[in-house]
TrEMBL record:
It comes from Georgenia daeguensis. It is an enzyme of class 2 (transferase). This is 3-methyl-2-oxobutanoate hydroxymethyltransferase. Catalyzes the reversible reaction in which hydroxymethyl group from 5,10-methylenetetrahydrofolate is transferred onto alpha-ketoisovalerate to form ketopantoate. The active site is at E183. NCBIfam families: panB, PRK00311.1.
Length: 266
């Protein structure tokens, strides 16, 4: 399969073709999603709350991210592999941001990076872009800032906040961002950003009038009891996995597994 590259993102927007993105944190899921035709695999810092049992994304480190990005990048043959920059690894300066992003490409094989924030990070985006690293922006509810945003809340409500978000999106795109994720923003605002932005918007809790969608894979597949309102459970994989584990345990206890065909002869 031909690799999805950044020019395909803009092409998709121009043609009105929807882009698909899912998170992946390991080789098992990367292979499945890549073969299913998902365009972009995001090694999100949501690895913190979804895989590493942290309460949020805030404790995630670059050293947590690298092995996960490496596993996904080694496995995906078609998808564009995007690495999140974790909290504290990029904000201080464009130089800090570049150094972290370089690790994601050199040590782990990512094709692009994503980080949270607007106009105040335009210089970061500009430096990475000039250095050959595609950047995806992330606006709206930005989980790394949950302490200042007052929890998981819809962002960009009201004219002033909406105008600010549009300005942030334009500043990121102007600095070279190849796409912008919009998380938990009112659908009409996401539609407005999508209309004015030359690069694709990728929504999560941002309605349908965006250029693409992203979901955390465990929400998409029904792995957990709770999932956010904006997600849809496209499967009940958690239930299926639980049934498989239960059937295995029962077969062992009943001595029906392993049977002769799973055993080696002398
Ligand atoms: O870390 C993540 O999973 C994300 C997506 C929800 C956009 O940033
Ligand atoms: Na993230």
């Amino acid at each position: 399969p031909r690799r999805v590259r950044v020019h395909h993102l803009r092409q998709a927007k121009e043609r009105g073709e929807r882009l698909t993105m899912l998170t992946a944190y390991d080789a098992v899921t990367a292979r499945i999603f890549d073969e299913a035709g998902i365009d972009m695999l995001l090694v999100g810092d949501s690895i913190g709350d979804n895989m590493h049992a942290h309460p949020s994304t805030i404790p995630v480190t670059v050293d947590d991210m690298i092995p996960a990005v490496r596993a996904v990048a080694r496995t995906a043959r078609r998808a564009l592999v995007v690495a999140d920059l974790p909290f504290g690894s990029y904000e201080a300066s464009p130089a800090q941001c570049l150094a972290t992003a370089v690790r994601m490409l050199k040590e782990a094989g990512a094709h692009a990076v994503k980080f949270e924030g607007g106009e105040h990070l335009a210089e970061h985006v500009r430096l990475l872009t000039r250095s050959g690293i595609p950047v995806i922006g992330h606006l709206g509810f930005t989980p790394q800032a949950e302490n200042i945003l007052g929890g998981k809340r819809v962002q960009g409500r009201g004219n002033e906040a909406a105008d600010r978000l549009v300005g942030d999106a334009l500043a990121l795109a102007d600095a070279g961002a190849v796409a912008v994720v919009l998380e938990m923003v009112p659908a009409p605002l996401a539609a407005r950003v999508t209309e004015v932005l030359p690069v694709p918007t990728i929504g999560i809790g941002a309605g349908s009038e965006v250029d693409g969608q992203v979901l955390v894979w465990t929400d998409m597949a029904g792995m957990t009891d709770w999932s956010p309102r904006f997600a849809r459970r496209f499967g009940e994989v958690g239930r299926e996995l639980s049934a498989a584990a239960g059937a295995y345990a029962q077969a062992v206890r009943e001595r029906t597994f392993p049977s002769a065909d799973h055993a080696y002869e002398s």
